[in-house]
Amino acid sequence: MCGDFRQLISSRGRKVVSMARRKRFGEILIEAGVLNEKTLQAALQKQKGTGKHLGQVLEEHGIITERDISVVLARQFGLQTVRDVAKHSFPKQVLGLIEKDFALNKLVFPLRLVQKRLTVAMVNPLDMDTIDALSFNTGMAITPCITTRVEILAAVNKHYLGQEEAKTVGGGSWSVLVVDEQELTRATAVAALRKEGFFVMETDDGAEAVRLAMQRLPHVIVTDTLATRVAGKELFHSLQSSAATRKIPVIGMSSKGTPEEEARVLDLGYADYMAKPINQLRLQARVRRILRTVYNNQLPTSNPAN
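Above: the chain sequence. Below: its structure as tokens.
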């Protein structure tokens, strides 16, 4: 069972409460031996002005993984990590205790309710404001477990967004295929699009993407242009070579956020371009724009190629 964070802190005295509220994430990583001071300072410089969390910056530069971060925090505070959250089922009573938007914005997910104690999965156990808000909103004592952003997004996708009806036009629904070998990028894109009410398919493999595109004929495809497993150039060529899929608009995503890369992708014939890490609002806006400009917001009743 996950450790009770509040009880844990209480047992170590008020001084630990104060330290837990003030201790910075970077200091914890240094104490755990994951980073040295030089690497931390370099990461903090890169973080300035980006609005990103330090953990996200470290992950983007390949210094540490999200799973590493969760393990470090779990060891630091004696908490349990949880995995494969999306694969389990949860009673509506438990899911109803945390609103969808709160779960997405704060990266928390309800796991279990026993009497007046709610166990939640969360990314940051140092976020006492979120724990306090959960306790206030639910009237429950909160027991946190640690997981990753990807796990939270996947769980919200399935258990909150997956239960919502897709936006429909004439009895059908807009569909989007997301292709990316990076789990975090894929989960972020899927969460953003399902939040808009679209029916979303996903894969991390280029060959599987071609198969899905041929069989399901999505209205929009969002794909990585550089990853080796996705093979973005070959995937786009395959889509353009088939009469069934060549008119499906494709949004290209690339970790090379340069004007040259954007020009290269657009010159190839992609409908739009996004630099990674993707922003959910921008992705939603770009897909909506394509639905307006390509389909005039009218759901096709036939193959997009017709």
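Residues 164-293 form a domain with the Rossmann fold fold (CATH 3.40.50.2300).
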